[in-house]
Design brief:
With 65 residues, the chain is mainly beta. It has 1 helix and 5 strands, in the order ββαβββ. The protein folds into 2 domains: 30 residues, no CATH class; 27 residues, no CATH class. The two termini are 24 Å apart.
């Protein structure tokens, strides 16, 4: 499982929430290195759709359907 952290720009000023205690307004930040796990791309299933997240040679991330 990925570690999730409230984004630095979150409006919440309280003690950081555990993943199951986050409110719907908290923004979660996940480092792309942990998400990609050394790979150049991964597939993300969202409902019935599949998206491809690619890490390019120019160090950009591209999400395509």
């Amino acid at each position: 499982m990925f570690a999730v952290h409230p984004h630095a720009h979150s409006t919440s000023q309280s003690v950081p929430h555990h993943a199951d205690e986050r409110s719907s307004t908290d923004t979660v930040e996940i480092d792309s290195i942990r998400l990609l796990k050394g790979q150049r791309e991964l597939l993300i299933r969202h409902g019935s759709e599949c998206y491809r997240l690619r890490h390019t040679r120019n160090d950009k991330l591209i999400l395509t359907k």
